[in-house]
Sequence to fold (1268 residues):
Amino acid sequence: MAEAIQSPAQATFWFVQGRVLFWLINLLGSACFAYIVAKRLTPLMRGQRDMRFDRPLMRLGRLLKFWFGQWRHPRYLAAGIIHILLFSGFIVLVMHTFALLAMGTSGRHAAAAAAGGLYGAISDYAATVVFLCMIVAIVRRLLKPARYAVPAKYGKAHTADAIFLLALIAVLMAADSVFEASHAVAVRESLPVISLAWMLEGALAAAPLAVLSNLYLGAYLVHELSFFFLLCYRPFGIQFHVETSLFSVYFAKLDRGTVKPVRWGVPDGQLDQVQSFGVKTFEDFTWKHMLDFYSCADCGRCSDQCPANAVGRPLSPRFLTIKAREYAFEHYPVWGRAHNGHPSQPLIGGIYSEDEIWSCTTCGACEAECPLLIEYIDKIVDLRRGMVEDGQVPQSLQKPLKALESRGNPFGKMEKKKADWVKAKDFQQTCNVRILNGEHNTETLYFVDSITSYDDRIQAIGRATASILDRSGENFGILGAVEKDSGHDVRRFGEETLFMALREHNTEAIKASGVQRIVTSDPHAYNALKHDYKDVPPVEHISEVIARKVHAGDIQLKPLPDGKEGGRDVYTYHDPCYLGRHNGIYDAPREVLDAIPGLQRVEMPRSRDRSFCCGGGGLALFYEPKEDQRMGVKRVQMAAEAGANVIVTACPFCMVNMEDAIKVAGMEGKMTAIDLTELVEKQMR
Amino acid sequence: MEILVCTRRVPDTSENEIEMNGAGNDIERDDLVYSVNEADNYAVEEALEIVERTGGIVTVVTVGGEDDEEILRREMAMGAKNGVLLSDDAFSGADGKGIATILAAFVKKGHYDLILTGVQAEDGAAQVGGMLAAMLDYPFASLVNSIEVAPGKLKIAREIEGGNKEINEIDLPCVLSIQTGINEPRYVGMRGIRQVASVPIPTFGAVELGLNGNAGAAGAKVRRVDYFTAPEGKGAEMLEGSTEAIVDSLIELLKAKGGLN
Amino acid sequence: MPRIFAYIVHQNGVADDSAAELAAAARKVDAGQSPAAVVTGWGAECDAVCESLRASFGEVWKIANESLAYPNAELVRKALVSVLPAGCIVLAPHSHFGTDLSPGLSIKLNAAYVPDVVDIEGADGAALRLVRQEFGGQVSAHVRCDISSGAVVTIRPGAFKPLETAPAGGVVVDKSSTVGALTAGRRYLETIAPETGDVDITKYPVLVSIGRGIQEQENVAIAQDLADALGAAVSCSRPVVDAKWMEKSRQVGSSGQTVKPKVYLACGISGSFQHLAGIKGNPFIVAINKNPKAPIFRVADVGIAADILEFLPELTAKIRER
Fold:
């Protein structure tokens, strides 16, 4: 076909031949990008090791689901759809874009650059969709959903910058479309209908050839320049996630429920040789954590779901990441020397405050929400480890930690009283709870843990659990005085050495008892025994045991009596963080509740993996945060709003927090809290 | 500044239940857990904060036996550079003055600019600091809740009645007894304690300190004969029954006594 | 039996309540002896105090010295050492001043020292039999003190009831000249009063007082609710101030405020003597505490063994219903 207009490679741009010019641009642009990426990788080279190269098949699977499949995005529907469209558009346009780049040096033309009509058409639609998404995204940035807001203490919102980038992508799409359209008009081709290029084609139908040529070449130049500008600009802001997301999702953490070791590659026995525990300066983070800082898209979903953030504590997960990213950009700039000559500064007291880091209950809502699978809990635990080592522990936590060290429980109660809860008068007559004595004749261990053993109110949960096990024919016993706190929250509050001591002690006691399996009513103990402890028998939560027995007919539940004045109680189930989100046990407790005839149950909007933390368990009960409101109060209000007047939970810490919240919120008489075991025990035939 | 902090290992008040033993003459000691006296811990923290501002080292000392080394190690894990144990069979049975005598003998072997003690321990005596100062002829102040360092002297505040603070100037070297709440002691983790587990702790006995046998029981003028629980006396009239009934009775009583209008 | 002296603490020309308590304690050491009072100070105030003590002490030893105008224990100690006879027995209150003065005084007098005594059982020759408390008042102890070279004994405020005796018709003995120029390594500068809070607890006839049993800052509201329902104020014990849940101005105790209410509700307060020392005027004390063995129940009029976090809201609700 005759060449109506010159190709970009052949044309001359201000005395420089296109081919040369575009070779230069491609080369310089790529070199610039490579340099920038290399500089961005510098801190990662100085970071700690992180073992992320194992189980490649599993990682690929998750890559497919979370990165390619955009699995988490629809959780915020509007933004999710926009992003899915955008992402799909980008994926489609990848090949097209490289083909375009190549064109500048190869002498080919627009239409010929495409691999064929179908791909060309899809590309055109993709460009159109991306363009439209950009418009919507810009409008959203101007309308500012609450999630995007930047509180004054964190600095300014980068709205102008965000809009600039979005606009630039729109320009890129527009340039591409102009490029296509002007060529199509010149060679009298038709473009896919309704696409942006098609619309431009219509607009340019009557344009003279010279104009078309100028538009054609101009659009190409604009495309080239915008492409490389964007490429080199992205690593300076939130859009770096376009490149890094692939890696951050591939390398994301595979093992749920557990906390990273103090140092990857250093076994527990050699920890004495580690100079310092935890993260005190930026370089103490692992390379993957640093990659997380780069990958954050500043979407704010994590903070939107964070219960600590919701009640006004100084913690906002989003800003933990953004502040660290800004630190990295400042201390490891692309232009200039690392640190600008200054030594590394401590993070606590610098970009982070102590309260900010202690405010976290490790509920995991942030990690469940992040579309890029950015990890938070490990970072917070590492920061706490650093503070613990330097003695920067709030006074309110020092007492329970000291008590855990000397008495094995945070209350400072005496070991010999650990099993006193079984001696309650009425209880002892109906249920005999054995204390295992090492004769290896018992199959199941009921691991009670500290709060259920010592707290006057929560002992009732222990008795209900024991009663259920007993009446359903389980051969079980408890460890009694030799059982120490599982150490679950000791670990998550950064006292790793104390945790290891507790774990070692309990592991020995469990092994000595000769049991084959463990049951617990405490999700924190469950999580610890399942993920933090090694070499112990398999563990189940009591809700799983009850569900199984209900299905098998070993437990039969009688109907509820009618409520007062003929009205029925309305129940709702609150998912404890360490049963639900961290361990995926959502259905068993619900199945148990639904097996109680006459039980009317409603679901709170924030349930399952969106459950709202009660306020935290273990050491979190002792910490005195600065907050506007208690998390528990918000939760019981959610239960009331869902139409319930009874909140059922399956965790002793949730129980403490719910009952406290009911009093503090003045809802006594209007809302009651009951544990799943207490309810089942009452209704068991 | 060279600061010496006198510390003592005591049964931990928050983690123990103090009860009489079966024989009725002593407290039940089988299940007790011990830790450093709370006020002494505040004193060590204060000493550490002072040397962080002005330079110097902190030494912790205690009079006792092998069991007492654990509190020295804990304070060393907190940041004290040296730990010293003053131990001798001859010291057993020492009364307050005996303890102060032993400490004074140790102080004289070194050069300390400042000596701190906790205001009181589990026996509520609040005596060793003042005695030590008098023996050394150093100025003394008790119930100190704030310290500012100046050349050759300190500006201190004492906690007196009504929440008032009595501001004094005191020459160095001096002895101060430190009140709880003066600061927020830093946390001492298990790892820190493990790291000092094998640091040597020098021990001094009667001979090294130049003491004759009178520091212990032989020279003690005050002796605790036994422990007992005092008969309750009248004590409070306990209200019994259901919470509702108790609340009602209480309201009646409050009305009668003018607490309710 | 050696001569017994009672060191009198005073302020603004008025002797402290402990003066009468020391007189009573002295009688328990030696029923047949009329103790001597010792007063240090300066000027008209000192004179006024000495005058007032003549009714309860056989002799009042006055040590007037300009440097003693403000009671600096370091200076007072030096004065006493030059005035008191060897081997005597000195009684002092176990207070901020008494504990500052007495341990050093016992060393300088080469006397034995027994602090914070709650009862004196008597003497067996050269040994005095006394009662102290330990572990925050949870146990008591019998103590024997060798008084052959004298003794300094501090008396717990409130432990000894003042005696009803006929006026002693004592004489004031001026010992000021025995004391020379006084200097010490510690110099008094000034006294700083705490910032007055929004609420002056000393003005309320009813106080809802909270202790460690309130457990956390957020629960203070529960006490405030009850106080509002009663038209009372919330006060507290020392641990609540140490934990920064309430301001210092709300603290009742020997290092806080002294209050004289009509009704005092001690909620979650163990009843340490330092706290009780701040309660005067014999109010009607209601104690609510989870631990039925808490020392507060020994001094309260009415006791309730309950968790304040559950009991107080119920009480508040019932009061509001009326």
